[in-house]
Amino acid sequence: HLTVHRVYEDICSRIYESAQRIDSITFLPSSGFHLKWKIQTRIANEKYLRTHKEVEWLISGFFREIFLKRPDNILEFAADYFTDPRLPNKIHIQLIKDKKAA
């Protein structure tokens, strides 16, 4: 049984592992700069996501609600979800639960 949280963690892990493997490859001078910049950006983004768990809870909560409610108008649903004044408190509570579980 895959949860949104597990899918999110799996995607982040795969990106991070792929970026680390690719970073160890020697690149041709003509294409190396762009590729190396792209990889460094991915690694930096992965580190950012790992240190900002609230992003994970925002995204996983959004996907969970989409899968549960299956709205016809996703854009309207997304606007409502991310502008809900209760959202910051929901995320804060989840972060506290995470810290207690760790």
Automatic annotation (TrEMBL):
Signal peptide limits: none
RIIa domain segment(s): 61-83
Domain of life: Eukaryota
Pfam family, one: RIIa
Cited InterPro entries: cAMP_dep_PK_reg_su_I/II_a/b, RIIAD1
Protein name according to UniProt: Regulatory subunit of type II PKA R-subunit domain containing 1
